[in-house]
Amino acid sequence: LELNTTLAAGSPYLNFQQAGTRRAYIQLHNTDNNLKLASEYGKISLFTGDSNNEQERLTVTSSGNVGIGTTAPSSKLHIAGSDSNLVKIQSSNGEADIFYSSGISGGADWQVGTGYPSAAGGAGSFFFYQGSATKLAITTDGDATFAGNVDLGDSLNISMSAGSAGQLQVKGAGYTGAIALDGDAMHIYHN
């Protein structure tokens, strides 16, 4: 099957009709060389499988919602499945981020992702980045670094394994303090 046009500005297309009414079509746009797949009365679905046992894998509804693993997506991107790893983001340059944009004037844009070697927290760290700085970095060891104040609300609970000593460090420009707890007493230090 070949669709061809002899017109220099032509955009060939294939119509799918039912009872004389066009229901869908495939068209090559002459102006931008893009292929257009259109459903005029419903959704577009992609099926895969074998031996007449095809399953609907990807759905685009008439309102523009995209579903993977669901035939009725309820948001712009809806991913469903029984696997605990539904989404994997991987980059070959050592940093894999998700970028969130508010899309409004004066709104804040955020990045969330994994760190590269020179990032705050180092290689493999998980970070929240906004503006021109890392706001929170969590290292692979579980250490967390915050930029700015941290409001803990009414209480702060620090848990440790039985028999181990724990301490809360407070660092500032040129000084370090700590509150330490061992099996016998609580100690306050200042350097």
Report on this structure.
The chain has 191 residues and is mainly beta. Helix content is 0%, strand content 41%. The protein has no helices and 15 strands. It has strands at 13-18, 21-28, 35-39, 44-48, 55-60, 66-68, 77-79, 97-100, 110-114, 126-130, 133-138, 144-146, 166-172, 175-181, 186-190. The protein has a 5-stranded antiparallel β-sheet, with no helix packed on it. The chain has a 4-stranded mixed β-sheet with strand order 4-5-6-7, with no helix packed on it. It has a 3-stranded antiparallel β-sheet with strand order 1-2-3, with no helix packed on it. A hairpin with a 5-residue loop joins strand 11 (133-138) and strand 12 (144-146). The termini are far apart.
The largest sheet is: 5 strands, antiparallel
- N-to-C order of helices and strands: EEEEEEEEEEEEEEE
How far apart the termini lie comes to 81 Å
Name the helicity range. Answer: under 10%
Measured on Cα atoms, how large is the radius of gyration?
28 Å
The mean pLDDT is: 83
Query: Strands across the major sheet, in which order?
Result: 8-9-10-11-12
Low-confidence stretches at least 5 residues in length (pLDDT < 50)? none
| Secondary-structure-derived class | mainly beta
| Number of separate helices | 0
Classify the beta-strand content into a percent band: 35-45%
The tally of strands reads 15
Per the principal axes of the C-alpha atoms, what is the gross shape?
A: elongated
Features:
single chain; 191 residues; mainly beta; 5-stranded antiparallel β-sheet; 4-stranded mixed β-sheet; 15 strands; elongated
